[in-house]
Give the backbone structure.
Amino acid sequence: MDGVIDIFDAAGIKKPDISILSDDFLEEIRDMKRKNLALELLKKILDDEIKTRTKKNFIQSKKLSDMLDAAIKKYQNNLLTAAQVIEELINIAKEIKASDERGEGLGLTEDEIAFYDALAANGSAKEVLGDDTLRELARILVQKVRANTAIDWTIKESVQAKLRVIVKRILRQYGYPPDKQKLATENILKQAELFADEWSS
């Protein structure tokens, strides 16, 4: 964390509050004279923001992390100038903000949106089932998985096996594309593992 504060100092920016990705703050970064410093600062902030989301929504955080890595690679390979990569990172910051607000738009809780993303990661599922069915499926999976999450489920193979059966049955009931059910089940279980401690306490 000290590293970030040093960058803020060097950049002459007051340590921002929780609305670190606010439009005003992003504008301030965009206008910084020392582009390399602005780039380092933004990269560090986005990294931290994505890390905190990894504990909640692994599909979304992987997508954001891939976007960040791709932008930085382009910059390192001299395909983008510092100013151009800052623009890309600002767009990623906006994407993070938008993804945080998606749950409200879809009428889903934080847990439900994570399961929704795990189901929608397979593009054809969205086409076949549509948003409404995916939303309902996410809600039901959260209820069922939550009800069957034992305290030590991460070490108990029997608990995981039972969950796998429950998830597969629900996916089948809802007509989830059969060829994608295995991957969706694994995604749901990975996601459930992130919530296990919280749910079983």
